[in-house]
Amino acid sequence: MLVVVLKAAIYYGPKQLEIKDVDVPKVGEGEILVKVRAVGLCPTDVRIYFFGSSSVKPPIILGHEFAGEVVEIGGKVSGLEIGDKVNVPADAFCGRCKMCRIGCENLCEDPLSFGYNIDGAYAEYVKIPKRFLSRGVIFHLPDNISFEEATFVEPVACSINGVRKAGVEAGKSVVIIGDGPMGLIQVQLSRLFGADSIILIGLHDWKLQLAKKLGADYIINALHSDPVEEVLNLTDGRGADSVVVTIGVPEVIEQGLKMAGKNGFVNIFGGSRKGSAITIDPNVLHYYEICFTGSSGYTFNDYEFAYKLVVKRKINVKKLISHKFKLSELFDAINQFQNKEKSLKIIIEPTGE
Ligand SMILES: [Zn+2]
Ligand SMILES: [Zn+2]
């Protein structure tokens, strides 16, 4: 490879992000170098940018929802060629810790995670460490799938874990709270899983209308009506079987709990700001036997399932993209992200022509 420097957005701590030239990482045995063609701007990255995170070790390059082209291959790598289009998961789990052994890889005690403890994809090139290759999680992309579509495998994988933890299955009534990309993915997953009725709650009419096209049976704009009351009306006063809260806001989580029916599930899917707290009536959990849970990340199994759904276009992700920016426009992208009125999923194209 002739390129020796690359442009990358280096994160130094809350509100300290610099786009500059850095050396292209050396590729060793068992590793590959990927030219990043598209990377999703994840709400988590924006939260880290503004508020920091105890699990992120700066200086580091953020960005973990990416797809690109293989441009360099280290020794002892098989099954890959220069020019291959690939998608790589955000994390490589260790496979040895207790959580990995019991099948909860998403809770791995020693993961390698792009943008957390290894450099991520807000850069022209990203080095893929050996563990990703040895664990067999480099996914080839067919020619007809665009790089921007492929960036959705990770959020779809997290969503699969999220709706499963919420008990979404055939015949159930499902409430998804939040009309962002995650909510719109989960509406589609609930439809695929055979849910009987799907209610999406949000704050933006155009996103709610899009959700209807993507499979929501009912949409509720929480600015115009009381969502708890509406959900109870739509479920014959019983409450829903499954509630997924994709918004990390305490009051919204409390509302979500009030929407669940007897024997129902409520899943906290979205992360909240540090120090957040909620108030719950324990009797609601006790007498209704509500399963109140959380979900975070995905297992490799969820990831592979998500990959299939995206490449077979069983989930429409294209419709969720509202903006695309170059890497040099990352700050504009972050500003756009905060303007929720106008934005849905934002894609960064570090090497976009
Ligand atoms: Zn993400
Ligand atoms: Zn592990």
Would you give an account of this structure?
The chain is 29% helix and 27% strand. The chain is of the alpha/beta class. It folds into 2 domains: 5-152 and 317-349, Quinone Oxidoreductase, Chain A, domain 1; 156-294, NAD(P)-binding Rossmann-like Domain (Rossmann fold, 3-Layer(aba) Sandwich). The strands form 4 sheets. Strands 3, 5, 6, 9, 10, 17 and 18 form a 7-stranded mixed sheet that branches. Helix 6 (181-192) links the parallel strand 11 (173-177) and strand 12. The longest helix has 13 residues, at 153-165. The radius of gyration is 20 Å and the shape is globular. The two termini are 19 Å apart. The mean pLDDT is 96. Bound molecules: zinc ion (2 copies). One zinc ion binds at residues 93-94, 96-97, 99-100, 108-110.
List the helices and strands and how they pair.
Layout: E1 5-13, E2 16-23, E3 32-40, H1 43-51, E4 60-61, E5 65-73, E6 85-88, E7 91-92, H2 98-101, E8 112-113, E9 125-128, H3 130-134, E10 139-140, H4 147-150, H5 153-165, E11 173-177, H6 181-192, E12 197-202, H7 205-214, E13 218-221, H8 227-234, E14 240-245, H9 250-259, E15 260-268, H10 282-288, E16 291-294, H11 300-311, E17 321-326, H12 330-338, E18 345-349
Parallel strand pairs: 11-12, 11-14, 12-13, 14-15, 15-16, 17-18
Antiparallel strand pairs: 1-2, 1-4, 3-5, 3-9, 3-18, 5-6, 6-10, 7-8
Keywords:
353 residues, alpha/beta, Quinone Oxidoreductase, Chain A, domain 1, Rossmann fold, 7-stranded mixed β-sheet, 6-stranded parallel β-sheet, 18 strands, 29% helix, binds zinc ion
